Amino acid sequence: MKQAVLAAPALLTVLAATAGGAAPSDAALTGVWLGTLEAGAAKLRIQLHLEPGTAGEPACALDSLDQQAFAIPCEHVKRAGDHLSFDVAAVRGTWSGTVSADGNTLTGTWTQGAPLPLVLARVATAIPAPKAAPAGAAMPPVAVADLKQVLDHDLAAALQAGDLAPATGAGITIGVEQHGQRLIFTYGVATVDSVFEIGSITKTFTGLILAQLTEQGVVQLDTPVRELLPPGTVAHPPGGAEIRLRDLSDQHSGLPRLPDNLAPADVSNPYADYDAQHLYAYLAKHGVALPANAPFGYSNLGVGLLGQALANKTGLSYAQLLQREVTGPLGLADTGVLLTASMQTRFIAGHDPDHRPAHAWDLDALAGAGGIRSTAADMLSYLDAQLHPDRLPAAVLAQANGKTLPAAIALSHVTQAEVSKATHIALNWLHVDATGTYWHNGGTGGYSSFASFNPDQDVAIVVLSNTAVGANGFTDKLGAHIAQRLAGKEAVSLAP
């Protein structure tokens, strides 16, 4: 539910006050009340439980039935005559009202941001919490159409007091496709067409650009990167192997994660002023020798260099090359390094891991490592092309740079090197050997993302969040949890 309406388990604070008549005793107020909170077109059923408490303070708990949030404790319960009030600190809400003379109606206002009327009537029997398996327990494979209902339950705790609680300002858009059936839905402040930074998932686009230019005969996977840089940028390494385009894409270049001359003027936007001249100065000093038996070493520098080198070769900027080779042919109008006017209006505000506002990141020479922004719908279209490169629409294949896409996508899936005993890497896609799943994740200062696809299972998943990667890796967990639910396997817990 959008926060402008009332974010998930963010609504539990109730106050009751009665106008006129004798004040009902605490014992008389014991029971269950049911009402509906209306905010625009949204309607949420609210269930209140009251019972005698200790030290003169009634005890209460609140259920948000449609959000599947149950037994949220009320605090600071205050009774003064016919007036009853309490908060639910977990969702920063308050309700205050009056008890009717017969003690069967609580009439008041729920306040959680904007005040909304909430009338609760006594009912004989409470609506019980659904009997569901524990959040991480296995259940039969979930159909795409039923996934949101299952996740509503699995995310109940996170929506109430965890990574998606209303006070965090968090928003997540989820996209799933299985056997051609597609579903996009949201939690928190996100909308289905919100634009997010996708961070390092950008690397898979850069890998596909490399595959495209390889299929078009512009470069080869074994072309030395030095040959794509301005003449004189870096010397040929004396008497040894040198870094190739393949090594940059499969993360075996021997380059460090970041260059040592990255010294941002604004640490909240750390890559904005790292331009090609900084990159070339680093390479001139470091060189492009390929270490013998270089191990897997995740390098933003390496993939950023790959994007810059391919752009140099074509005489385009990385943003232009991306549009020419991938987003243009696939019709991904909401995917790019630069925000269009339409994307800008839907660019959701980012937050750091502590849920404080975070600056968007602008990447220059290293854009190929993490500079793309996108939506869940465009990402699903991108992942659908990964699943079915042999079924691209005729309109895609008719384009000059679309006709090579089927072969390029297939090439980008060919594993190039080992990451670990259980994982290999293709052209930037990580491949889980046991399941056949390809995946990558991403993180910037205010956003995190996860994308995966499995050709054998014909399933693709994308999770886009406006909160940076935190200690618990919530976005990755959610992506894994969705895959496990679709497969009917035990699922990682999403509880705080």
Brief summary of the model shown:
The chain is an alpha+beta fold. The chain is built from 14 helices and 21 strands.
Describe the model.
There is one protein chain. It contains 14 helices and 21 strands. With 496 residues, the chain is α+β, with helices and mostly antiparallel strands. The chain has two domains: 26-123, Lipocalin (Beta Barrel); 196-487, 3-Layer(aba) Sandwich (Beta-lactamase), CATH 3.40.710.10. A hairpin with a 2-residue loop joins strand 5 (75-80) and strand 6 (83-88). Helix 4 (202-215) packs parallel to helix 7, helix 4 (202-215) packs across helix 8 (318-330) and helix 4 crosses helix 13 (405-412). Mean pLDDT is 88; it is low at 1-23.
**What's the CATH topology label of the largest domain?**
Beta-lactamase
The portion of residues assigned to helices is 10-25%
Shape: elongated
Structural class: alpha+beta
Rounded to the nearest angstrom, the distance between the terminal CA atoms is 19 Å
CATH class of the largest domain: Alpha Beta
Number of domains: 2
Overall pLDDT score: 88
CATH superfamily of the largest domain: DD-peptidase/beta-lactamase superfamily
